[in-house]
Amino acid sequence: IWCVEHDRALVLGGAAVGGVRLGLPRLVWTTTARSNFKHLLYNARKNAEKVCQSADLTLWRERAPTWMRIDYWEIFLNIWAVERWQQTSTTMKVNRAANPEANMHTSWFVSFATHQSRLEKERKRPPTFQEVFDKTHKKKWTDQYISDRAQEVAESYSQQVTEKYAGEEQPQLDSEVWVAASGAPKKGHVYGFGHSMDTSRVLSGTSSSASHTSAFTTAGAPSTSPNEMRGFIRDEISGLESRLA
Questions:
Q1: Which runs of consecutive H residues, i.e. helices, occur in 99-199?
Q2: Using an 8 Å Cβ cutoff, are 48 and 210 in contact?
Q3: 3-state secondary structure 51-87
Q4: 10-11 sheet: strands from edge to edge
Q5: Is the pTM of this model over 0.90?
Q6: Up-side HSE of residue 176: CA atoms within 13 Å toward CB?
Q7: Which parts of this chain are annotated as the region Disordered (predicted)?
Q8: At what angle do helices 70-80 and 226-244 cross, to 10 degrees?
Q9: Phi/psi of residue 100, each to 5°?
Q10: Residue 76's closest CA among 91, 95, 102, 57?
Q11: What digits encode the pLDDT tens for the residues 93-131?
């Protein structure tokens, strides 16, 4: 199994990672998994703070998440205790508060796939991507989008697919039109896509317009192995330490 700790050079076009030749789906999965790991780590911090009812890092040492070795957890605690890291964290919080549109989402704790499944049960048919997007990017009860960007992307996509498929059945998702409306992927992530969604079709330039079946699905890549999880952890530690050096 290829280990993430060897990931030193990610080249999407050439599919080269740390000298190891990989297919695009694997690279997409790695990018998504790395992003998900950061969410796991964030949740581990919040959980430790909640259980200990304190932001004092010295009280968190016995609150390591079940998926992380205690020695790795202690390394993270030591890094988080560094004044420079805390200053950076505070700055990022201020920036997020100043730019709420970049962080708004009406369904933080419910996955994209879960919303997709719920809508399918409610409507007795597979929902379109835009229906799921609206579900996760509109304020409850008001039917208003959470940000100007969300509204602009949704309206642009709706207009473009209407024009493209005039008089024809529209696919659940036309990835080419969505990217045209939402902008190019950033760090492997497409605006509006949930973290559990398979982005390989968009990143590889494959249009889903050729298929009127399920055009957006959760990633079918292999699950994270213990070796890969350790690789993510060591990568994150190395990155944090280098930034604090």
A1: 112-123, 129-137, 148-164, 175-182
A2: no
A3: HHCCCCHHHCCCCCCCCCCHHHHHHHHHHHCCHHHHH
A4: 10-11, 16-17, 20-21
A5: no
A6: 10
A7: 202-231
A8: 20
A9: -60, -25
A10: 57
A11: 777 666 655 555 544 445 566 777 888 899 898 888 888
Spatial separation of the C-alpha atoms in residues 114 and 123, rounded to whole Å? 14
Q: What residues does 16 pair with on adjacent strands?
A: 11, 21
Helix (H) / strand (E) containing 33 = helix 24-52
Cβ contact 190:199 at 8 Å: yes
Tokens of residue 137, six digits: 């990017």
- Which residues does 116 contact at the CB level (< 8 Å), separation at least 6? 127, 132, 216
Q: Which two tokens stand for residue 147?
A: 């940000």
Q: Are 144 and 138 in contact (CB under 8 A)?
A: yes
